[in-house]
Amino acid sequence: MRVVKRGSLLIEFLLYIALCNILFIALFQLVSKFHGYHYKLGLSLYENSAYWRALDLFIAELEAAPADINQWHFFDPQGGCVWLKNGVSVGWLYKDMALYRQEGPFNADLQQWGRKSVSLVAHNIERFTLERHDADGSVRFYRLKLKSKHSLPVEVFIKPMNGHYA
Protein backbone atom coordinates (compact mmCIF):
# COMPACT_ATOMS: atom_id res chain seq x y z
CA MET A 1 0.00 0.00 0.00
CA ARG A 2 1.24 3.36 -0.99
CA VAL A 3 0.87 6.40 1.31
CA VAL A 4 0.74 9.75 -0.45
CA LYS A 5 1.55 12.85 1.64
CA ARG A 6 -0.40 15.69 0.20
CA GLY A 7 -0.34 19.19 1.72
CA SER A 8 2.93 18.93 3.64
CA LEU A 9 4.63 21.19 1.12
CA LEU A 10 1.86 23.73 1.49
CA ILE A 11 2.24 23.78 5.31
CA GLU A 12 6.04 24.18 5.02
CA PHE A 13 5.57 27.06 2.53
CA LEU A 14 3.05 28.85 4.79
CA LEU A 15 5.36 28.40 7.80
CA TYR A 16 8.25 29.83 5.75
CA ILE A 17 6.14 32.89 4.74
CA ALA A 18 5.06 33.49 8.35
CA LEU A 19 8.67 33.37 9.63
CA CYS A 20 9.81 35.75 6.87
CA ASN A 21 7.05 38.20 7.81
CA ILE A 22 8.03 38.10 11.49
CA LEU A 23 11.68 38.66 10.58
CA PHE A 24 10.78 41.56 8.24
CA ILE A 25 8.62 43.26 10.92
CA ALA A 26 11.35 42.92 13.57
CA LEU A 27 13.98 44.34 11.20
CA PHE A 28 11.66 47.22 10.19
CA GLN A 29 11.06 48.14 13.86
CA LEU A 30 14.78 48.11 14.57
CA VAL A 31 15.54 50.40 11.59
CA SER A 32 12.66 52.73 12.55
CA LYS A 33 13.94 53.14 16.11
CA PHE A 34 17.47 53.79 14.85
CA HIS A 35 16.25 56.35 12.30
CA GLY A 36 14.00 58.08 14.88
CA TYR A 37 16.91 58.47 17.30
CA HIS A 38 19.14 60.03 14.64
CA TYR A 39 16.33 62.27 13.40
CA LYS A 40 15.78 63.64 16.92
CA LEU A 41 19.52 64.11 17.37
CA GLY A 42 19.79 66.00 14.06
CA LEU A 43 16.81 68.18 14.93
CA SER A 44 18.33 68.99 18.32
CA LEU A 45 21.66 69.95 16.71
CA TYR A 46 19.84 72.15 14.18
CA GLU A 47 17.87 73.92 16.94
CA ASN A 48 21.05 74.42 18.96
CA SER A 49 23.00 75.89 16.03
CA ALA A 50 20.09 78.23 15.18
CA TYR A 51 20.09 79.38 18.81
CA TRP A 52 23.81 80.21 18.73
CA ARG A 53 23.51 82.02 15.38
CA ALA A 54 20.68 84.13 16.81
CA LEU A 55 22.75 84.89 19.90
CA ASP A 56 25.71 86.01 17.75
CA LEU A 57 23.47 88.26 15.65
CA PHE A 58 21.86 89.82 18.71
CA ILE A 59 25.22 90.47 20.38
CA ALA A 60 26.61 92.09 17.20
CA GLU A 61 23.54 94.37 17.03
CA LEU A 62 23.90 95.36 20.69
CA GLU A 63 27.58 96.12 20.21
CA ALA A 64 26.67 98.38 17.29
CA ALA A 65 23.82 100.04 19.20
CA PRO A 66 24.38 103.66 20.19
CA ALA A 67 25.90 104.25 23.59
CA ASP A 68 23.95 107.52 23.92
CA ILE A 69 20.76 106.83 25.93
CA ASN A 70 18.91 109.62 24.07
CA GLN A 71 19.00 107.53 20.89
CA TRP A 72 17.10 104.71 22.61
CA HIS A 73 13.32 104.78 22.09
CA PHE A 74 12.27 101.88 24.27
CA PHE A 75 13.81 99.43 26.70
CA ASP A 76 12.09 96.57 28.53
CA PRO A 77 14.33 93.98 30.24
CA GLN A 78 11.81 91.17 29.66
CA GLY A 79 10.35 92.23 26.32
CA GLY A 80 12.97 93.86 24.13
CA CYS A 81 14.40 97.18 23.05
CA VAL A 82 14.34 99.77 20.26
CA TRP A 83 17.02 102.27 19.31
CA LEU A 84 17.76 104.68 16.49
CA LYS A 85 20.55 103.68 14.12
CA ASN A 86 21.43 105.75 11.03
CA GLY A 87 17.96 107.31 10.90
CA VAL A 88 16.15 103.95 11.11
CA SER A 89 14.81 102.36 14.26
CA VAL A 90 16.05 98.87 15.08
CA GLY A 91 14.29 96.75 17.63
CA TRP A 92 14.38 93.34 19.23
CA LEU A 93 11.26 91.76 20.68
CA TYR A 94 10.85 88.69 22.87
CA LYS A 95 7.31 87.30 22.62
CA ASP A 96 5.74 83.83 22.73
CA MET A 97 9.08 82.06 23.34
CA ALA A 98 10.59 83.62 20.20
CA LEU A 99 13.06 86.42 19.45
CA TYR A 100 12.19 88.84 16.61
CA ARG A 101 14.20 91.60 14.93
CA GLN A 102 12.24 94.65 13.78
CA GLU A 103 13.29 97.56 11.60
CA GLY A 104 11.45 100.65 10.36
CA PRO A 105 10.05 103.97 11.63
CA PHE A 106 9.21 103.98 15.34
CA ASN A 107 7.15 106.71 17.04
CA ALA A 108 8.78 107.15 20.44
CA ASP A 109 5.93 109.32 21.79
CA LEU A 110 3.23 106.73 21.02
CA GLN A 111 5.57 103.75 21.51
CA GLN A 112 4.35 102.35 18.17
CA TRP A 113 5.92 101.12 14.98
CA GLY A 114 4.96 102.49 11.60
CA ARG A 115 5.54 100.23 8.62
CA LYS A 116 8.15 97.77 9.80
CA SER A 117 9.84 94.60 8.70
CA VAL A 118 9.85 91.75 11.22
CA SER A 119 12.13 88.71 11.11
CA LEU A 120 11.92 85.65 13.32
CA VAL A 121 15.46 85.11 14.56
CA ALA A 122 15.04 82.26 17.07
CA HIS A 123 12.26 80.24 18.64
CA ASN A 124 11.97 77.89 21.64
CA ILE A 125 13.62 80.46 23.90
CA GLU A 126 12.32 79.82 27.39
CA ARG A 127 13.85 82.83 29.12
CA PHE A 128 15.14 86.21 27.92
CA THR A 129 16.49 89.02 30.11
CA LEU A 130 18.46 92.05 28.97
CA GLU A 131 19.88 94.50 31.49
CA ARG A 132 21.30 97.85 30.42
CA HIS A 133 23.76 99.46 32.82
CA ASP A 134 23.94 103.23 32.34
CA ALA A 135 26.20 105.90 33.75
CA ASP A 136 26.45 109.60 32.88
CA GLY A 137 23.89 109.39 30.05
CA SER A 138 25.57 106.57 28.18
CA VAL A 139 25.47 102.79 28.18
CA ARG A 140 28.40 101.15 29.92
CA PHE A 141 27.51 97.51 29.27
CA TYR A 142 24.65 95.07 28.75
CA ARG A 143 23.99 91.84 30.56
CA LEU A 144 22.09 89.28 28.49
CA LYS A 145 20.59 86.06 29.87
CA LEU A 146 19.08 83.47 27.53
CA LYS A 147 17.76 79.95 28.02
CA SER A 148 16.69 77.74 25.12
CA LYS A 149 14.85 74.44 25.16
CA HIS A 150 17.82 72.68 23.58
CA SER A 151 20.73 74.48 25.21
CA LEU A 152 22.22 75.43 28.52
CA PRO A 153 21.54 78.90 29.96
CA VAL A 154 23.80 81.63 28.63
CA GLU A 155 24.87 84.84 30.36
CA VAL A 156 26.86 87.37 28.32
CA PHE A 157 28.27 90.81 29.13
CA ILE A 158 28.40 93.09 26.10
CA LYS A 159 30.25 96.39 25.77
CA PRO A 160 28.83 98.85 23.21
CA MET A 161 31.18 100.00 20.44
CA ASN A 162 29.46 103.42 20.10
CA GLY A 163 27.53 102.53 16.98
CA HIS A 164 30.36 100.74 15.15
CA TYR A 165 30.79 97.05 14.47
CA ALA A 166 33.91 95.53 15.97
Biggest sheet: strands side by side, in what order? 1-2-3-4-7
Please, how many helices? 1
Task: Find the count of extended strands (DSSP E, 2+ residues).
Answer: 10
**Shape designation:** rod-shaped
Give the termini separation. 103 Å
Indicate the percent of residues in helices: 25-40%
| Strand residue percentage | 35-45%
Mean pLDDT: 81
Q: Total domains, how many?
A: 1
Ranges with pLDDT <50 over ≥5 residues? Answer: none
The helix/strand class is alpha+beta
Radius of gyration: 30 Å
The biggest beta sheet is recorded as:
5 strands, antiparallel
- Order of helix and strand elements from N to C terminus: HEEEEEEEEEE
Walk me through what this model shows.
The protein is α+β, with helices and mostly antiparallel strands and 166 residues long. The protein has one domain. Helix content is 34%, strand content 39%. The protein contains one helix and ten strands. The chain has one helix spanning 8-64, and strands at 72-76, 80-85, 88-95, 98-104, 106-107, 112-113, 117-123, 125-135, 138-148, 154-158. It has a five-stranded antiparallel sheet, covered by helices on one side. A three-stranded antiparallel sheet has the order 8-9-10, with helices on one face. A hairpin with a 2-residue loop joins strand 3 and strand 4. The longest helix is centred in the N-terminal third of the chain and has 57 residues, at 8-64.
